[in-house]
Specification:
Shape: globular
Helix content: 40-55%
Radius of gyration: 22 Å
Strand order of the largest sheet: 3-4-2-1-5-6-7-8
Strand content: 15-25%
CATH architecture of the largest domain: 3-Layer(aba) Sandwich
Oligomer: single chain
CATH superfamily of the largest domain: Glycogen Phosphorylase B
Bound molecules: uridine-5'-diphosphate
Largest sheet: 8 strands, mixed
CATH topology of the largest domain: Rossmann fold
Number of strands: 14
Distance between the termini: 28 Å
Structural class: alpha/beta
Amino acid sequence: MRIAVISMHTSPTASLGQNANGGLNVYVREVCNAFSDRGVATDVFTRLQSPDDPAEEALAPLSRVIYLPAGRDLDKYSLLNEVPAFASKVAAFTTEHDIQYDLLFSHYWLSGEIACLLRPQLAAGWAHVAHTLGLVKNRRLAAGARPEPAMRIRVEAEIAQQADLLITSTLDEAGELVSSYGAAADRVFVVPPGVDLATFRPLDRAEARRKIGYANGPLLLYVGRLERLKGVEIAIRALAMLADRAHPGLRLFVLGEDSRDGDESEKERLKGIASELGVRDRVDFLGSVAHHELPYFYSAADVCVMPSYTESFGLVGLEAQACGCPVVASGVPGLRSVVRDEVSGYLIDGDDPSSYADRIGRLLTNPELAQQMGRRASMLAQRFSWTRTADRLLSLFDDAIDGSQTRVQVGITHE
Ligand code: UDP
């Protein structure tokens, strides 16, 4: 099987935790790796990000990234104008190299629109992963966050009508595709993402703390791109409440950089809030950290905090749990599929910092409870792996390809 993966918006080789680079990039990279192990070849088409990027780069023995010059430095909404040009470049590449694909596998609405244009000429089947949905994001916006425009929602609806397979991470998202976007239920499949369990595993806490240069005291951790929807402000407000009470040495490490979704820097805004609350010296903005270094941080922390306003899955929660770190998260559908309330952490409805302070406080004052939840968290994480994700995807792809071939043959017979 040979698959054309369309990832126009961001590249699987990009540095994570900044700009738009997060879960989607990890997903594409890990799935292509696992496909390669199973003898399935992938060409990942993405944008050239800098003049130094090569034209092609190997991702795995049977996977390569192909960088196409299109819309460098444009924001995601302006990128829609580049979709036809990007699609033409993908088509030209395949003609020039005489490649036939069995399937198009698109990620995010912009790439879905490209697949929509390419499908008639390039491959018989088309599978799409939305990663996030505009309508869902708009339903629960953080104060001051920019709503997703109607144009994105129109594109998402078009994809929902036309793709052969719509892959979602959770049952909730599958329901949204059917009820809010009008997708046919028999084309929607839930395939949870995974975690690299060889890398993300519990490490000795003292050793992990030595490694990250943090000796003593209770430690909260946030990991992810910095943008309003991630709710880091709530974590800072909860920290301020706890630091006032019984936890004078408490610190919060914030890993990740600005998502640059608008003009404002979320990092600067968060620093301002921490200063106003008198806890600026307790919040360390450490910038983005390489993925393979994260197990040290998750293993060193007492609690990983994820106060997201919306999350279609939340890989960070899964990674933290795989490292034995309890997670205090918002009870949005994506995080509900990762964190078990009162088992591997706590889920909180709403965005009240005092609820977060309460649950975090419970874990800090009761290390035995925290350890027990950490152990259960790492056990729960064992059910998720990228190999399992890849196997489920490939079995769906096989069926879709068989189905599309039957359709083509039937068409010929009737002629
Ligand atoms: N990440 C990273 N370094 C950072 C911040 C984030 O490697 O400094 C990774 C993180 O480990 C996770 C991904 O970026 O794998 C974020 O995925 P998630 O699903 O939590 O959020 P998204 O970016 O999809 O909103």
